[in-house]
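Thread: Newbie trying to understand structure tokens

Hi all, I'm a second-year student working on a class project, and my supervisor (Dr. K.) asked me to get a predicted structure for one chain before our next meeting. I've only ever worked with sequences, so writing a 3D structure as a token string is new to me. If someone could post the tokens and maybe explain what I'm looking at, I'd be very grateful. Here's the chain:
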Amino acid sequence: MTGPALFSAPQRLQSLDVLRGLTVAFMIMVNNPGGEGAWTEMRHADWNGFTATDLVFPTFVFAVGMSIVFSTRARLARCESPAKLAWHSLRRAAILFLLGIFVNGFPHYDLAHLRFYGVLQRIAVCYLIVSLLYIWDRRAWTKVALLVCVLIGYWVLVRWVPVPGAGVPGRDIPFLDKDQNIVAWLDRQLLPGHLYEDPPAHNLRDPEGLLSDLPAVGTTLLGLLTGLWLGSGRVTKTITLGLAIGAGACLASGYSWAIWFPLNKKMWTSSYVLVAAGWSLLLFAIGYWTIEQRGWGKSGWSKRLLWPWLVFGSNAFVAYLISELLGGAIELFHFTSGGHRDDALSFVYIHVFDSIADPGWRALAYSVSYTVACFLPVWVLYRRKIFVKV
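---
Reply by user tm_fold:
Sure, no problem. This is what the structure looks like when written as tokens:
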């Protein structure tokens, strides 16, 4: 294992900030799609399948994996001990997890049905596991071996482990059945009444459940491996080529595996891990080529084009928290019009966006407007050079 004294502080990658910014902006849009009329690509696939929306969350997790490399190396360059790094990772993960629970319950906090799983909780778990692994062992090949074990192991669990009371998938019950699968079954045993898709009369499933954290760790590992490649000291052309090759390899292997293990975001299937990472890598490769290799964003129109994504990317977690809390806060206020009493969010939708005839454009106008509203406080922080770190 290389000692801390051999590390120098890494330079900040503008392309990584842009990737984070694009991802969190699109995440805000698809989390606030503006009704049932939203276009297909602005909605998650109902079960098996893949839309642009299904790329958002894994790209964010992928970026977390890349960031682990740069943040850890920066701390090693300051001669911080592994024990201190591990404590920092544990503290950060705990804060993220608790913030996730806070967001889930806001503003009413129904403790009887409070959801404990969630987006920030999954990020916290993946970040903690992968960062501790990287602090303990910074070799790339061990992460590749673990990635293979994680993806194949999850496939074995989902495909061959009998679901209690139902049977073996593919023999006694349909493979990847919505309700009768080992992932949903375990969540129902652990947290009945606290799941995302959990109406009072049923205990169904959660898209960020416990077992599906396993392949999500695989997504984070792919991000970590990308970060190791970026920090390998190779010339930018070679790095860009490697990113493109990696994207092609992930897409080819993922879509091939999907023939037997379908793409499924809600179960975070292993094929989905590879396909999502492939698209994330391709998007990042384009950004790396244009920004780091070609020098875009330094002046002129390209700088103006990248500016909003840099603003979002500089405080991505803050932007996400604002987006999750803003809607709940607005709904606390009510207005009466035409004899009807509506919460503020519904009032605005009815009196501003309902005038747009086409449901797809109406939904898009709402989601873009909501995203702009979330952008403004992040822009204020950016102007004041305030960058919030958990």
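A couple of things are worth pointing out once you decode it. The chain has 13 helices and two strands. The two ends are 28 Å apart (CA to CA). Feel free to ask follow-ups in this thread.
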